[in-house]
TrEMBL record, chain A:
Domain of life assignment: Bacteria
Keywords recorded for this protein, A-Z: 2Fe-2S, Iron, Iron-sulfur, Metal-binding, Oxidoreductase
Keyword presence, Iron: yes
SUPFAM superfamilies: 2Fe-2S ferredoxin-like, CO dehydrogenase ISP C-domain like
Record bears the keyword Oxidoreductase: yes
InterPro entries documented for this protein: 2Fe-2S-bd, 2Fe-2S-bd_dom_sf, 2Fe-2S_ferredoxin-like_sf, 2Fe-2S_ferredoxin-type, 2Fe2S_fd_BS, Beta-grasp_dom_sf, Diverse_Oxidoreductases
Domain named 2Fe-2S ferredoxin-type: residues: 2-78
CDD domains found in the cross-reference section: fer2 (cd00207)
PANTHER family to which the protein is assigned, alphabetical: BLR6218 PROTEIN (PTHR44379:SF2), OXIDOREDUCTASE WITH IRON-SULFUR SUBUNIT (PTHR44379)
PROSITE patterns associated with the record: 2FE2S_FER_1, 2FE2S_FER_2
Name assigned to this protein: (2Fe-2S)-binding protein
Automatic annotation (TrEMBL), chain B:
Lineage top rank: taxon: Bacteria
Keywords attached to this entry: Membrane, Transmembrane, Transmembrane helix
Protein name: Molybdopterin-dependent oxidoreductase
Species annotation: Gramella jeungdoensis
PROSITE patterns from the UniProt entry: TAT (PS51318)
């Protein structure tokens, strides 16, 4: 066990865990931030996607010891009132079915739009291909990303 | 307006009120409620009421007019948590903006069929949900009439405001709710005519959407309790094996670990429910303080396994009779394939025979025979199996994702010996169901573990545990034969269907009833791999196979595939063969025509490869036309046009979402997904090798159209899923010149390259 000071959603947090613990479980078990989901544990489904210094990463593969002074953003910290353009677009298109994968989808989509505010269809597909949705909401997700893209430009 | 007897007597009503009291709300504080529209993202300022008045078990009204409606059925992503309360709100005549929705816990005294399965929630809840709203409305009106000393017939109500025709009197539901809660429950209530619907048939956003997109705790895996421990299981590595021994001492000393032991979830003498499906009853359990710590201990634990002679003896007999040298009783996919091919080549149990099919085949000018297969599938709900249990000396509290809470309660009653009133089952929102969570062994496991520890426990399956646990979609095999005469007329049809361990045959569905000489046969093979219902059970294979065969048959007969189907349906409508035809030929033809017209069938560009398919299941009709093109030798699905007849559509945009999702899910499973076995060991245990459809493989556009016929609603969660597999196969043929008979189609990907 070791003590780690990490910056999550703009707040400094202390956790006492094994250095090998993935951020996924630090968030969920120790910090009670359960918006980040467990889906596969092997970086294949994208449900656990968070931002590390603004880039989408799979938190199941990011050990707590590797974070150091980088800034972590989770779905809970994406916006203060749930009004990030991507979240608003998700509501407008009423995207979720079961909803379990959607936090990860939103984190991947928001990171994409940050680095590429006007992605093409192919760029959206490439950026989102690591996020599985068993319910099959892919067409709505793509439409919502386009809406969010447009709203950022407007 | 139609008068309907409520069937709610005074006695049962009083019972309902007492059961639906304050405790119900307190129990759900952790899923803190929000108004329906606010939850969907609208900013609305509204105070919570100071006092709530229970009107009936489905709803309560606050003194300020806010209404809480309990959604009775489990929410697995089919959106009943929005659409069921919409039906109550419709008859209640309340402003949807003033509605809060809460998930009801299991309560068999108030609700019937609290189950997510068979696409039946809306269909079977339709009347009771409407009556719950209408009864409450009637009581509110009666209370206002009493207060004003006027007849009820002089009152009208709109959006929760009652008005008196002959004066300027008006009163809100909130102000009269207290008096209404004292009113005698009416024996008859009037239900609205469909023309007067104001909420049903209008799109309302998912009531949990805001919580979903902001990452609020909603799911079983999100449950947190003080002093809660994390439990995980280790199950045998192969179907047919069982626990022998383990060396747990070192693992018990690992950081955060509390205990390691074995359980027997379903002892042999326990009377099981249908939902108690579990391939592995005896499990190793690891318990610790945090998920990661238990995962590490799980990896380090050494367990010895051995063959279970009870499970493997029947398979050994099969293996020996097939001449296998190594008759271990542990199954492999290769063995399954050869067994099914052999079984499918023989005559089997005749389930239906019309006319004289044998003679027609004998006299045929041509016989067309094709065989179709599909593999086992894992459900792969994105949220792996899990459950929270807190079992004390005399009470069992269970909270988590379960599609069958009523049966789970019975299982707990049998397993722990607790009376039903001491078993409290509450449902979280579920990260997918698809049939997997009908089988609540994980709930029983959690309860047994909690009881043994005397502590609250959250049982967590890893993805690997989830994918290798069984309860799979069975493997199926079907052979179709068609007899054509010298003029290319279809004279006989033969379906011979089977599977491991169940047959996919629906002998009385189309094309039965449309052909004079018809033969349907069915067979099954034993297995020790556990299976369960998987989105549209049996239909999820036989629809695609049948619709592929009809496509090939139409081509052989020189007919347009849509006109061929419509001609057969016309025959089934005007001069049906046999009496037990399980479909309405007019509604069936209706969706095909609607899809044909919307997709502008026959007018597509020459570069577009089109496949059509249609099917009837779960009381609904779906036709799909799929447009495909090839890019770099890979199929691209440009568009799918869907036509659906599910009667009245309660929540149109959400219903479209469901059809889009079912379509994509169906394409994915037909093209990519497969569970295979070697010596009883599942060969895929995570998404690195088990393929699910991904973003880039989804259709570029899906166009959904509903038939408007005013018929009471039927199923929607399952019906769009099975037929699309046929449309995929038929479009692939057009695009590649090759027919695809064996799912998953992209296993034969090299053919395209």
């Amino acid at each position: 066990m070791a003590n780690f000071k990490i910056n999550i959603n703009g707040k400094s947090q202390n956790v006492d865990v094994d250095p090998s613990t993935p951020m996924l479980w630090v968030l969920r078990d120790h910090l009670k931030l359960v918006g980040t989901k467990y889906g596969c544990g092997v970086a294949q489904c994208g449900a656990c996607t968070i931002h590390l210094d603004g880039t989408a990463v799979r938190s199941c593969q990011l050990t707590v010891s590797a974070v150091k002074d980088k800034e972590i953003t989770t779905i809970e910290g994406l916006s203060e009132n749930g009004d990030h353009p991507v979240q608003k677009a998700w509501l407008e298109h009423d995207v979720p079915q079961c909803g379990y994968c959607q936090a990860g989808q939103i984190m991947s989509a928001s990171a994409l739009l940050k680095r590429n505010p006007q992605p093409s269809d192919e760029e959206i597909e490439r950026a989102m291909n690591g996020n599985i949705c068993r319910c099959g909401t892919y067409t709505r997700i793509k439409a919502a990303i386009k809406t969010a893209s447009d709203s950022q430009i407007a | 307006m139609s008068k309907v007897r409520t069937g709610i007597g005074r006695r049962s009503f009083i019972k309902s009120v007492s059961l639906a009291g304050g405790g119900l709300v307190i129990g759900f504080n952790w899923l803190a409620c929000k108004r329906a529209e606010e939850a969907a993202g609208k900013e609305v300022a509204m105070q919570m009421p100071d006092e709530w008045f229970e009107i009936n078990g489905y709803l309560k009204i606050g003194d300020n007019g806010i209404v809480t409606i309990y959604s009775p059925n489990p929410e697995i992503g089919q959106n009943v948590k929005t659409s069921m309360p919409m039906i109550v709100a419709e008859e209640l005549d309340v402003d949807w903006n003033n509605v809060i929705v809460e998930q009801a816990p299991l309560n068999t005294d108030i609700f019937t069929r609290q189950l997510a399965g068979g696409s039946q929630s809306i269909r079977q809840g339709w009347e009771s949900l409407r009556m719950a709203g209408a009864t409450a409305r009637q009581m509110l009106l009666t209370a206002a009439a009493n207060q004003w000393e006027v007849p009820v017939s002089e009152l009208s109500v709109e959006k929760g405001i009652i008005k008196h025709k002959n004066s300027d009197k008006s009163i809100g539901y909130g102000e009269i709710a207290k008096a209404a809660s004292q009113v005698e429950v009416p024996e008859e209530v009037e239900l609205k005519d469909n023309d007067n619907f104001k909420i049903i048939g209008t799109s309302r956003k998912n009531v949990d959407a805001k919580k979903i997109v902001t990452g609020k705790p909603l799911y079983g895996l999100d449950v947190q309790r003080e002093d809660m421990l994390i439990a995980m299981v280790v199950q045998p590595p192969a179907f047919g094996m069982e626990f022998k021994s383990m060396d747990a001492e070192k693992v018990k000393d690992m950081p955060g670990m509390v205990d390691v032991f074995t359980i027997d979830t379903y002892p042999e003498d326990m009377e099981k429910e249908w939902s108690d499906v579990a391939a592995f009853s005896k499990l190793v359990v690891l318990v610790g303080e945090s998920t990661w710590q238990v995962m590490q201990a799980k990896k380090a634990l050494k367990v010895e396994w051995e063959l279970n002679p009870e499970l493997t003896k029947d398979i050994q007999i099969l293996e020996k009779s097939a001449g296998l040298e190594d008759a271990s009783g542990l199954e492999s996919s290769e063995f399954h394939t050869s067994l099914m091919a052999e079984a499918g080549s023989k005559n089997s149990e005749v389930v239906r025979r019309d006319g004289n099919p044998e003679k027609a085949f004998k006299n045929a000018a041509r016989v067309i025979e094709r065989t179709y297969t599909c593999p086992f599938l894992a459900h792969n709900c994105m949220e792996p199996m899990n459950f929270f249990a807190n079992v004390t000396e005399d009470k069992a509290e269970l909270l988590g994702p379960i599609q069958t809470p009523e049966y789970a309660e019975k299982s707990i009653n049998k397993r722990l010996g607790f009376d039903l009133e001491n078993i409290d089952i509450q449902m979280t929102r579920m990260g997918g169901g698809f049939g997997r969570r009908l089988y609540g062994h994980f709930l029983v496991e959690a309860a047994v573990i909690s009881q043994k520890l005397g502590k609250p426990v959250k049982l967590v399956y890893t993805r690997e545990d989830d994918m290798t646990n069984g309860v799979y979609r069975p493997a199926y095999h079907v052979k179709y034969r068609a007899a054509l005469d010298g003029n290319n007329n279809l004279t006989a049809f033969h379906v011979n269907a089977g599977g491991i361990p169940e047959s996919p045959l629906f002998a009385n569905r189309f094309p039965a009833g449309a052909i004079d000489n018809y033969l349907a046969e069915s067979w099954t093979l034993k297995s020790n791999i556990s299976v369960g219902a998987f989105r549209a059970p049996r239909s999820n294979f036989i629809a695609g196979a049948e619709q592929s065969f009809l496509d090939e048959l139409a081509e052989e007969m020189g007919k347009d595939p849509i006109q061929f189907r419509l001609d057969m349906l016309e025959r089934a409508k005007t001069d049906p063969v046999g009496e037990n035809n399980d479909y309405d030929a007019s509604r069936y033809a209706g969706v095909i025509k609607l899809a044909r017209d919307k997709a502008k069938w026959g007018k597509e560009s020459s570069e577009m490869s089109r496949g059509v398919s249609a099917y009837y299941c779960h009381n609904s009709y779906v036709a799909q036309i799929l447009d495909m093109s090839m890019k770099d030798n890979q199929p691209i699905i440009d568009k799918v046009t869907c036509a659906v007849d599910c009667g009245i559509v309660v929540n149109p945009d959400a219903a479209k979402n469901m059809v889009e999702g079912g379509t994509i899910d169906g394409i994915g499973h037909a093209m990519y997904s497969e569970m295979s076995f070697k010596d009883g060991v599942p060969q895929h245990e995570n998404f690195d090798t088990y393929r699910l459809i991904r973003h880039s493989e989804a259709p570029k556009a899906i166009d959904v159209h509903f038939v408007e016929n005013g018929i009471d609603p039927t199923g929607l969660g399952e019906p769009p899923f099975p037929p699309i597999m046929g449309a995929v196969a038929n479009a692939l043929y057009k695009a590649t010149g090759k027919r695809y008979y064996d799912q998953p189609f992209m296993k034969a990907q090299s053919i395209l390259g």
